[in-house]
Amino acid sequence: MNRNTQKWYDKPVTKIILITIAFTWIFPVFGFVLSSFRPGEAIKRESWWDAIYTGKLWTELTLANYSEIFFADNLDRSFYNSFAVTIPSTIIPITIAAFAAYAFAFMEFRGKEPLFLLVVASMIIPLQMSLIPLVQLFKSGVEVFGLPIIPALDINGTFVATWFAHSGFGLPLATFLLRDFMMSLPRSVIESAKIDGASNMTTFFKLVLPLSVAGIAAFATFQFLWVYNDFLVANVFLGVYKPENLVVTSHVSQLAVGAYGEAWHLRTSGAIISMIVPLTVFFSLQRFFIRGLIGGAVKG
Amino acid sequence: MGAININNVGKIYPNGTRALEDVNIEINDGEFVVLVGPSGCGKTTLLRMVAGLEDITEGEISIADKVVNEIAPKDRDIAMVFQNYALYPHMSVYDNMAFSLKLRKLPKDEIDQKVKDAAKTLEIDELLERKPKALSGGQRQRVAMGRAIVRNPQAFLMDEPLSNLDAKLRVQMRAELGQLHSQLETTTLYVTHDQVEAMTMGDRVAVIRKGVLQQIDTPREIYLYPKNIFVAGFIGSPAMNFVYADIKTSAKGTTLIFGNDKISAKDAPEALKEYEGKEIVLGIRPEAFEDSVYANKKEFTEEINIDVSLLEQLGSDTYIHFFKDIKPVQTEAIEEILADEGEDISVLGTQTKFIARINPNATIEEGQNINLAIDPTKLHYFDPETGMAIT
């Protein structure tokens, strides 16, 4: 290959660096996976690399951890809970953000720029800071001058609370990403629809929405993974002490520190089981995901 | 179908940039008017203002005798064809064409009829089920046209519709568009950057420069009687030759002196006498020259002596390039035309360059010294200060 046409990632030095990074990343995951197949006592007695060295590893491999979690520990209920949190928390912000993004991208209205800035700025609010005010809001609502602006719904501990919270935290990024995606659609196509007689609603539903599928799928993947992997928001709004409300992430963490003490073998296998869902989502939406990210770079 | 009236229209962008100034164009019912000019001259802006995609800052635009300044694009009853076709990528060709009709809530069978008729006219009836992605550039162009004609609108607005096609296809589509227009007779406003398109397609051509309408007339009038140096230099390929010339009037007539050459003007405008003793810009089209051997002496009555520096034989024509040791004409207009071709004023050098079109049978070699005949009735005279034609 000609030296000039060689890409930066084809150079031996970069290859070595990249392989090192990849190895560093995979190494603990590899150990993690191995541990999930080893009995609890074995993990505590001997590190997995020693076990490989002594050759004991091959004799002690077992599926017992997995069966214990699957059958003994109510994990199916947690999966069910996780979906009950994640699916609405993905759909709600996308629906709202798609409309908002269309308005920001294609409509002219007073205060559009400052409003959009506000949306972008709200991305930098750390969600940890808003947890306590949100809990208060969900509990006792808002009263201004004696008027109940938001009623005291007392929805803490219900799934609706997590939907509200996750939707709120996801909305700014969703609006930002979708607006960017929509603005990368060829402008003349939208103008053409305008001349053809389409109202904003028609343009949105018939043109912009179908053409934004890639962007929507990309954000849906982000949001789904983030909500599914989330631990903090679910624990705050659903509560840790009601076992029937546990989501997968909370459940797995409890396996290690709760009733089981240092149950590493269960923790690892539980984590791997919980990874199945995000991996499935990622790989099934990957096609859109990658197209969504580069979607703006290529002229439609 | 309707006429389009553009009255004293101006455009100032919110950031203060002026894109158009006091443009007046009346497009008659069924007329094909071409807006032509260099990139960034405001021609597309004007078209978009007619379409309703840009606000009208000053003046008034009316379509079919209805002022449309405050009317939304969808209610102006016009159809637009975009440079990049702007097809709806997720819809089939049929749905692309039916889109506007469906929005108008026409009955299904009527839509079907109209789409199929339009498809037949454009010879795309085989492609109705395909998606735009599966079409060639020329086919996409036809679909874009089809989407416009199914609506039978008051007017077509076309924004450089052929510029994305390759040269051969462009020539073909140009002819087809012309044919289509004579068949449908819909008022058309057509924006192009290509002066050949402008000349061949337009009933009338409007030349725009820096947001100001320079001249609007039939292609023939524009070519024969350009109002200023810009129009003269922009329209015509190869471009008109410009040279500084001194005027000397005597009882016998007017003599033009450039470099060592003297030619006597024929049918020169009266106003030229006022430039006695002064310098003017003389414009000579390439075809106003002829090899003196082949020249018809009745028309080509004057002669100059030149050294051929470059010979271009195209078969049907022969172009010869030659230089005269005269300071090249540098005006803003010429600078702008050069800039539009991606050149700048430095290409002019220190000598005036001429291109002459001569009889292809002439046996001439590069470097040869020959006599070139000139038809003095085909000369153009411009004021060097204002750039306006002296008439």
Please give the order of strands in the largest beta sheet of chain A: 1-2
Query: Which homologous superfamily in CATH is the superfamily of the largest domain in chain A?
Result: MetI-like
Mass-distribution shape of chain A: globular
Shape of chain B: elongated
Question: Could you say what the CATH topology of the largest domain in chain A is called?
Answer: MetI-like fold
- Average per-residue pLDDT of chain A, rounded, comes to 84
Summed up, the helix count of chain A is 15
Give a structural overview:
The complex is a heterodimer of chains A (300) and B (391). Chain A has 300 residues and is mainly alpha-helical. Chain A folds into two domains: 1-62, no CATH class; 73-298, MetI-like fold. Chain A is built from 15 helices and two strands. Chain A has helices spanning 12-36, 40-45, 48-54, 57-60, 64-72, 75-106, 112-121, 127-140, 159-183, 187-196, 200-211, 213-229, 232-238, 248-257, 264-294, and strands at 142-144, 147-150. Chain A has a two-stranded antiparallel ribbon with strand order 1-2. Helices cover 24% and strands 32% of the residues of chain B. Chain B has nine helices and 20 strands. Chain B has a six-stranded mixed β-sheet with strand order 6-7-8-3-9-10, with helices on both faces. In chain B, strand 4 (58-63) and strand 5 (66-67) form a beta hairpin. In chain B, helix 2 (93-103) packs across helix 3. Classes of the chains: A mainly alpha (300), B alpha+beta (391). At the A-B interface, helix 10 and helix 11 of A face strand 6 and helix 2 of B.
